[in-house]
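Dear support,

I submitted the protein below through the web form. The confirmation email said the job was done, but the results page showed an empty box. After a refresh the structure appeared. I'm attaching both so you can tell me whether what I see now is the final result or a partial one.
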Amino acid sequence: MATLGAEARALHFDECDVEPERFGVADWFRRPVAEVGISTGHVLAVDAYQRQWLQATPMRSVRFGLRHRTNCDETDVFAAEYGYPEWGLTLSVGDYSGVKMQKRPSPDWGQLVPVDYVSDMGTLIALYGSFSRPVLRKGGRQLGYSLESGLAYNTRPYDRNGNIDNELTGSHLLFYFGATLYAACRLDERLSLRADLAFRHVSNGALDRPNKGSNALAPELTLQYDLDEARRLASVEGRSFRPFRPFWYGKATWSVGGRTLLEEWLRTQYGLSPDDPDYRKADFRLYPTYNLQLDCMRRYHRCRASGMGLDLFYIPYVERLKTLAAVVDPAARHHPFSVGLALKHEAFYERLSFYMSLGYYLFRRTGYLQPIDETPYYERVGLRYRLSRSKGMSLGVGVKAHKTKADFAEMSIGWEF
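What the results page shows now:
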């Protein structure tokens, strides 16, 4: 069995240095894997408003995927740091037609007139990449977690002419995010079985309305087939990884985002009579948003950095917010600039990184919906890619949210110094 160099041992890169059982640790490191999986679960009702019109929640899906398992005979230091993870590409087809929605007569709906039919979500087709990190391996078994990100297509989004109460998905094209806890076991030389407890979210990132988003909790079972034959792992004796030296760095990031306004959605849903041409309409204007982040970060590990930053937001659609507020709350306060202070964290794998932050507004004035729709804190998640020929430059895509509900989707460019 292969052993790792002394320096790698010091950094705890000794996952492969274990005597395997009949189907043991080394059997997980064949590169290409094909898989097929099934799942069944439920869409979650996340608040009292959603529970008023969400009538049924069952969903089920089938998934087809290809997976790459990093090998413990490789010299990739990031693979070693993450315990030799797996990268996957998956096509998922989900039957969400059992998710039923209908608004019953209620004084909560303002001028809205309930319809006499039930809306549903139809079919959800998703294509996404995944990163699975094993946390524990013992013999032919392993435990770990997985993160997933990609795009989805919904066949039956909101439609005022035939699917009017589907407030979960407001557009055909959606952002997809998933997170799972998994357990896997080796069945024979080529077959393995994996079970996941999965949380999956789709929404349009506030680029359209409605944007309630679908959150599903689903157990999954996946059969995996190794496409390569078993092979002896090459020795890594004598190889070593360059020691990592922690350092401080600054980062400036400029982002441009887009969002539709919840105020306009509420006006057309509940504030207009059925004979108005804009009553429960489906098309909303997309407004730009701008943001500058100034961060001080400490990269204390090859794969991780944490720090703090100042976030400066500019929303040029303030005049439109004032116009909408004039009918509801003329005394509401508005300002085009907001300022936040945020804790930030980033996880690296070579040039790719996953970032997240939790911020608190030092100053923000967005009108009468601010105490209802927003929280004093905000979250941000996304992916970045560092360009090889531009020192310190990165491109990113992400979402800013309040209590996991999207405020806007954004693209960014950043510089490290």
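Response: this is the final, complete result; the empty box was a page-load delay. The longest helix spans residues 318-328.
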